[in-house]
């Protein structure tokens, strides 16, 4: 083109931006200025969608001011609010609002979404009330964002009010609104309402099915999630990265690994293997099934590893007893300059716990807040306490529990009680058991441990007294349970159950296997 005006430049910049070539679009913007063409308001509205950091956002805003743009313009103002909202700069969003002469629905939607993204949930609800006072009618995006706010707050009552408003104005069967409503009902433990709303939709789309699949997975209904996924494929609804991620999360707990392998094959077919969220879900799935090599291979193939990737593989290694590998990855994470978070330290402390690395664990625990600014939480204290218990250092474990800034949970005291029972410390068992009874009176563990230790020491009267106390409190005995997955069925065996699925035949077969193993051991 012999002559390129601002419209020509805007068109090609917009084309690169819409195709995902952000760097090239920014280069063209600089090149346009070098030719003497002055940017327009539309040029800057494109740039606001390309910024990659808070600092970059402020630079674009400054450039707009220097170029003499009318920042009171509603289009530019909305672009700035969305830009700052992406980085959680809520105060800057309000500063832009104050310069605008007129606000439309998009302005309020952008501001409410910015508050929600920054975690300022009550502020988001307050902006909605202000919006209603200005007599502007909310649209579908407003309602879906508000229901997301209520989902995060687990506030079913406020969510119902928003849902009733959607029903009143006719938004209830909009796919985006219904997806947000299903997510709200799911997180507030109203599965039946989520299912009812989903079944009322005649037309399915990806967003609606994703929410319902996620809902099933969250409520431990892996088979229902998989069944719905198959139905979406039959209806030619292309799955998204979020869909397969939800499925992998449900497979890793409730369905056989063969199903996970099939989904993994589908991921390659769909071209999702390079997506970080999908890759992290695969690492998590294989880690929970114990296929550590598969998890490591997928982790190593991730080109851009975020902290979630590192945390997922480290937690998988720790759970599977690969202590040295988890510790090496932690050192590698620190060396690449990525700051660890609370999940990272939980994975490392779990590895130290499983590997009985008391000195290394205490060193990492002491550096959490001092060097990395991560305040230890209950989970970290529980791993440290269990680490000391396994090493037989019961006094140190009790001192940590008594000095921790949180109220010790019954689980922490149970770890100490189990260790005390292992080492036969009667006095410590009585102290710890009393603490557990005070905090969790319905649990049977302290009564059973006391009864057993009294019997071992010949204190029969004390044993009878503990048994009667357990009966009087109505404590229910915890029943052990084992899961065995065979093809598409998961069989559950409870310790006090004589018959199950296959009846006595299964137990006869198990007894035969035990007898064969004992015979082989005797032969050796």
TrEMBL record:
<dbReference type="Pfam" id="PF01535">
    <property type="entry name" value="PPR"/>
</dbReference>
<dbReference type="Pfam" id="PF13041">
    <property type="entry name" value="PPR_2"/>
</dbReference>
<dbReference type="InterPro" id="IPR046848">
    <property type="entry name" value="E_motif"/>
</dbReference>
<dbReference type="GO" id="GO:0003723">
    <property type="term" value="F:RNA binding"/>
</dbReference>
<dbReference type="InterPro" id="IPR011990">
    <property type="entry name" value="TPR-like_helical_dom_sf"/>
</dbReference>
<dbReference type="InterPro" id="IPR002885">
    <property type="entry name" value="PPR_rpt"/>
</dbReference>
<dbReference type="GO" id="GO:0009451">
    <property type="term" value="P:RNA modification"/>
</dbReference>
<dbReference type="InterPro" id="IPR046960">
    <property type="entry name" value="PPR_At4g14850-like_plant"/>
</dbReference>
<feature type="repeat" description="PPR">
    <location>
        <begin position="104"/>
        <end position="138"/>
    </location>
</feature>
<keyword id="KW-0677">Repeat</keyword>
<feature type="repeat" description="PPR">
    <location>
        <begin position="306"/>
        <end position="340"/>
    </location>
</feature>
<feature type="repeat" description="PPR">
    <location>
        <begin position="5"/>
        <end position="39"/>
    </location>
</feature>
<feature type="repeat" description="PPR">
    <location>
        <begin position="205"/>
        <end position="239"/>
    </location>
</feature>
<dbReference type="Pfam" id="PF20431">
    <property type="entry name" value="E_motif"/>
</dbReference>
<protein>
    <recommendedName>
        <fullName>Pentacotripeptide-repeat region of PRORP domain-containing protein</fullName>
    </recommendedName>
</protein>
């Amino acid at each position: 083109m012999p002559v390129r005006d601002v419209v020509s430049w805007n068109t090609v910049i917009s084309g690169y931006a819409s195709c995902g070539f952000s760097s090239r679009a920014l280069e063209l913007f600089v090149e346009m200025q070098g030719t003497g063409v002055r940017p327009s308001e539309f040029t800057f509205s494109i740039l606001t969608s390309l910024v990659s950091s808070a600092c970059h956002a402020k630079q674009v805003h400054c450039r707009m001011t220097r170029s003499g743009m009318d920042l009171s313009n509603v289009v530019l103002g909305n672009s700035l609010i969305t830009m700052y909202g992406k980085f959680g700069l809520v105060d800057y969003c309000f500063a832009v609002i104050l310069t605008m002469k007129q606000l439309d629905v998009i302005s309020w939607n952008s501001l409410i979404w910015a508050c929600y993204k920054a975690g300022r949930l009550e502020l988001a609800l307050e902006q909605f009330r202000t919006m209603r006072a200005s007599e502007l009618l909310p649209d579908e995006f407003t309602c879906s964002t508000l229901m997301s706010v209520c989902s995060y707050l687990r506030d079913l009552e406020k969510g119902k009010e928003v849902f009733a408003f959607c029903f009143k104005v006719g938004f209830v069967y909009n796919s985006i609104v219904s997806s947000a409503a299903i997510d709200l009902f799911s997180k507030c433990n109203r599965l039946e309402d989520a299912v009812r709303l989903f079944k009322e939709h005649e037309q399915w789309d990806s967003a609606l099915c994703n929410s319902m699949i996620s809902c099933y997975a969250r409520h431990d209904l892996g088979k229902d999630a998989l069944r719905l996924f198959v139905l979406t494929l039959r209806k030619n609804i292309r799955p998204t990265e979020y869909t397969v991620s939800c499925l992998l999360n449900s497979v890793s707990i409730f369905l056989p690994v063969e199903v996970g392998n099939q989904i993994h094959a589908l991921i390659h077919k769909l071209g999702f293997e390079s997506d970080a969220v999908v890759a992290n879900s695969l690492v998590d799935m294989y880690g929970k099934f114990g296929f550590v090599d598969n998890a490591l291979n997928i982790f190593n193939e991730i080109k851009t590893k975020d902290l979630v990737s590192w945390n997922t593989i480290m937690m998988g290694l720790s759970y599977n007893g690969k202590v040295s590998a988890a510790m090496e990855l932690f050192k590698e994470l620190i060396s690449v300059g990525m700051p660890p978070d609370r999940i990272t330290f939980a994975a490392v402390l779990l590895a130290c716990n499983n590997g009985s690395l008391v000195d290394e664990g205490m060193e990492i625990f002491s550096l959490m807040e001092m060097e990395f600014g991560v305040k230890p939480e209950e989970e970290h204290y529980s791993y440290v306490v269990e680490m000391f218990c396994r090493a037989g250092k019961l006094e140190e474990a009790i001192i940590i529990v008594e000095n921790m800034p949180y109220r010790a949970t019954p689980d922490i005291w149970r770890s100490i009680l189990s260790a005390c029972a292992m080492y036969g410390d009667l006095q410590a068992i009585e102290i710890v058991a009393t603490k557990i009874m005070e905090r969790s009176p319905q649990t049977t563990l302290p009564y059973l441990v006391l009864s057993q230790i009294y019997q071992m020491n010949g204190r029969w009267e004390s044993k009878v007294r503990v048994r009667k106390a357990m009966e009087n409190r109505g404590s229910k005995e915890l029943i052990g349970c084992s899961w065995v997955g065979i093809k598409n069925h998961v069989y559950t065996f409870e310790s006090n159950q004589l018959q199950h699925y296959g009846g006595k035949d299964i137990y006869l077969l198990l007894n035969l296997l035990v007898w064969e193993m004992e015979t082989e051991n005797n032969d050796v």
